[in-house]
Amino acid sequence: MPVSKRKVAVLGASGLVGQRLVRSLVGHPWFEVVALGGSKRRAGTPFRDVLHPLGSGDLHGAAVPQELADMRLLECEPGAAFDCDIVFSALPAEVAEQVEPAFAQAGYAVVSNARTYRMDADVPLVIPEVNHDHIALVEKQRRERGWRGCIVTNPNCSTIALTLTIAPLARKFGIEAVQVTTMQALSGAGLSGPSALDMLDNVVPYIGGEEDKLETEPQKLLGTLAAGSIEPMDIKISAQCNRVSTVHGHLECVAVKLGSRVEQDELLAAWAEWHPLQDAGLHLPSAPAQPVIYLQEPNRPQPRVDRDLENGMASIVGRLRPDPILDYKFVALGHNLARGAAGGTLLLAELLHASGAID
Amino acid sequence: MPVSKRKVAVLGASGLVGQRLVRSLVGHPWFEVVALGGSKRRAGTPFRDVLHPLGSGDLHGAAVPQELADMRLLECEPGAAFDCDIVFSALPAEVAEQVEPAFAQAGYAVVSNARTYRMDADVPLVIPEVNHDHIALVEKQRRERGWRGCIVTNPNCSTIALTLTIAPLARKFGIEAVQVTTMQALSGAGLSGPSALDMLDNVVPYIGGEEDKLETEPQKLLGTLAAGSIEPMDIKISAQCNRVSTVHGHLECVAVKLGSRVEQDELLAAWAEWHPLQDAGLHLPSAPAQPVIYLQEPNRPQPRVDRDLENGMASIVGRLRPDPILDYKFVALGHNLARGAAGGTLLLAELLHASGAID
Amino acid sequence: MPVSKRKVAVLGASGLVGQRLVRSLVGHPWFEVVALGGSKRRAGTPFRDVLHPLGSGDLHGAAVPQELADMRLLECEPGAAFDCDIVFSALPAEVAEQVEPAFAQAGYAVVSNARTYRMDADVPLVIPEVNHDHIALVEKQRRERGWRGCIVTNPNCSTIALTLTIAPLARKFGIEAVQVTTMQALSGAGLSGPSALDMLDNVVPYIGGEEDKLETEPQKLLGTLAAGSIEPMDIKISAQCNRVSTVHGHLECVAVKLGSRVEQDELLAAWAEWHPLQDAGLHLPSAPAQPVIYLQEPNRPQPRVDRDLENGMASIVGRLRPDPILDYKFVALGHNLARGAAGGTLLLAELLHASGAID
Amino acid sequence: MPVSKRKVAVLGASGLVGQRLVRSLVGHPWFEVVALGGSKRRAGTPFRDVLHPLGSGDLHGAAVPQELADMRLLECEPGAAFDCDIVFSALPAEVAEQVEPAFAQAGYAVVSNARTYRMDADVPLVIPEVNHDHIALVEKQRRERGWRGCIVTNPNCSTIALTLTIAPLARKFGIEAVQVTTMQALSGAGLSGPSALDMLDNVVPYIGGEEDKLETEPQKLLGTLAAGSIEPMDIKISAQCNRVSTVHGHLECVAVKLGSRVEQDELLAAWAEWHPLQDAGLHLPSAPAQPVIYLQEPNRPQPRVDRDLENGMASIVGRLRPDPILDYKFVALGHNLARGAAGGTLLLAELLHASGAID
How far is it, in rounded angstroms, from Cα B286 to Cα B272? Predict the structure, then answer.
């Protein structure tokens, strides 16, 4: 272990995403968890007492070490108890609203999975493989808000799965329109998600707020940073979001209209050859070797079978074929928890660390 | 019981659709089952011995009466044993290929759920509410093929759910394009469908042949009969079909491009006011009072909750809203077995009977 | 409609059991719903606004009529608004504790599904087929408590399924011990039951308080009323209760030690010939024609396939065979909602009405 | 890699158990796969072409290396192509009947998961933690059958989960009777198990042949080897077996009658202190550090949450409490595939290797 691991804290450690994050940080080469934040009501409770059996998020082999299990939850207020540089926020959106700016103002780099500030003009919304350059927006944010710290945000889980697959197409061929219908897993709704009685032998064709996020976040992610602000990509997105009975893994049926006439093989090549982090010389510990994996079998990807490929950090694609209305259609799968929530947030912190944006 | 019930037979009585059909015919006001056909191997077996616990297709209260249960399966060959006018075919497609023409030639009216002849130019493919006039095609069929009987066909189950919802829009406003992503129930795959080990905590984004049917059958159904042939409607359809863990009820996320600029309320009115059979003076016993039912709740329709409305014979619609790429999007639900396979075939036989196309 | 239907009310009308009860009462030959009670917070709300999509409990064809849907929920306090003789209580146990005695004291006959008073010495706990004579206990209850009304109680849902199957054996052969392991359906936990994330690809081997109920209630149900009190049957019961992913229908693996040496055929006959209500001249509208149905197939009963037999009012039994430790083992299935909660409560009210215990 | 890894083959490599076995052998410290056997029909097919997406059995991180994927399936006949000492048999029982003796006669040590020869008097049926001494029976087997090789067998998956939990109790306190009701996972039925249509919203209270295995195999496993034969333990076992909708992990509700009066804490201690392999100086690579793990939480063990503890090689126990009929009851969980089928067979081969029974 190097002497100088960077100290981090996790806010919202009693939720599904927070617990998965904590476990993902066990043995991390760059980061070391020194504090955990929970609700006021839970302050003082040892972490072990809020550990939920599902909190591992099927992160196999990642038990919580003794000293983390013994760590007592702190109230989420900046101060000496949070003796660290980075705070991960897995807070509910309405709690994040007050807490995240307070930490940013107090000098912490807040790396957030909450939706609250994602679409703010001076807040980077970043998928490292897609738009790592947007991280530079924190300079403007600090200047304008007078903060020593900053807030950077991880997109919605269904957004990440989609955007990883369309980014290489957008970069190479342009994209004008995207139709996407999702079949989203239960863990995306957290520990207080839908009841088994509602879901068994059923599909719920509605997830509150989800379609709006999926229709707008990719525009910002694929946008261009110029003169200190993001020009969103001009791309029409239509989303229909469904909750289905899978534990993890959002499956998405996608159709795209490209900016130019392209052969099917060119799309496959665009995915296969896309290694943007490696090309940028960014070697982040949690980054997948292959961010988009194409499966040849006619009936893949499938959530239970394929979600753990690349430790769940990649988007898995299959069934590419022409679309009679737009240009091409395909199926995409992304692990909503391993990548979407916990892993995406961690990767973003690694980018922030590697980019030198925090001292 | 009136003296003059029309005698019918069911071919393929050992499958899920065949068994549901037989039960749907118990107590039918116009039809009386006099013979049941099965595979050569099963000829002579009493129907009770092939009855599967799932064969009721959740048709509540419809036990199989003693005399039907005692009926012995016949080999599927026209002859004296089939002493009837109409034979329902719930045969596998490859078996239907030989058997159905044999019966048609021998003078039977074959009302088929098999996909084999659906797209033949002189074979009516009919949803009574959508294109009951196409039944007239049997005249040409008889003439050209020299048959005394005929073959008329019921569309694929996912086609019916979709076409019932877009037909009133097509009639009133025109339709240019339809994007549809389905989440289809297990009973659509019959008794030998996917294994529980494959489906639990999973979605399979592929159903063999299904997308092709869903992209072509509505064009014929919405087409125009003129000069003895069908001119398909010029409508682009793109389908993505998925198998999910529901027992019955295909859920479909649909987006449509209409032929003219239309307000949202006009679509709702088009659905609410659509009673084509009643308007045509066709009073078929199995027809739903309301073929398209719109639900106001933001998270409906749902398969388990809504599939049994109107005895499963209607398409249930919800979540109508503008689409950023095409014009509108919505969610549709159809009971694949109650309407799609068994009910649609029965309704078609009722139309054939009522239309006077058989003597 | 006969002039003289007895007026009834349903308390707890916003829960799963309450809603199923209300629907079961639609068109009832003896009873007419005149009032609905809910929580203080919901007082004044029209019933239609609390109707849950699952509230029908799969009671097919039982829509809620206009005048019931319009009925406004009342606070659960005895008074003029409750212009009726019988109040059904589908209240949570802790609410029932105050509310039920208040109604009983005010002269109402309270027919309760709550567990609160079931084991009280002067409160009848009754399955009409098993111990309809225990209803006489209300006389003692009224006398001792000085009530004009009364409280009678319906057992726990898993108790009913079990007790219906062992009662005829106990009556005929005696029973000394019962081992039972249950696999209980989700609807048994009501609308706020376990989350889908907890249940998918899982079984939870624990249901709070359930094993205690299942080990004690049958002793009282099978007990003897003498000198105004119940002598419980001396029978050892060991229960292990599990929650599984079924919508309705508690499946129970049972082993019994009988009071005498009995051949297997004698058990089958004991079940087949058991028609206690009919034998007692009690013709209750909701009573099943056959309270215990034995299925011969080696792999039955199964929850989804068999739970709706006899409108869900019977216990379905199968797989009777010798037990190496006790005497015999078998599998039993009971519909926890159709019979266990709503149907059992309704049947009990019918018994109370028919027995003349209320004027 | 040491020079001298022992060469092994896997027969039945196209099934679920065979594929999991092959993957478990990747990187094994003692064994090296040199041949794979399949059905006659598949002979010559590269292993990669029969790899099923579920064949990993959720063995995370265990991809099949190139040279194994390229290996062509051989017909299952002893000969030069099988250049190895040990053959694992994951064959169907009826195929194993001929194939296993042929290999044993030809000098191979056959380590089998098939049920065919388990109960033969001269065939060791072994769970290494329970009865590793029974392996000595191979001497008698070789002598009597004139074989150079031998057959040793792994018990049924539900047997292993149960027997691991009762063995330490039997050794320490004696056991007279065991009541067990199982809720078994889908992967226990292999790739051609029950259909999703049969299992969704359902439990099937029957598994062909399973109860008989579970009632007899533990008697042999807990028996005593004396004078070259096994004296079965005199213990009454009653089993009721159910198939439920879980992917992996058989859950078992158990009640036991012990041979002596014992306090609850003594049972907990018996489980906690039981390390029979370590005590015998047997250090087998796949053996769990703790073969029986007790969970304190009131609602555990649960299949999805707990099946992967100790790499799925342990039995997980919980809810120990007095039983009103026998002495104690508890809940046990065993991973049917990781331990029950593939892992148990591998551990047995390790025992055979370590015991010096093969040269």
Answer: 19
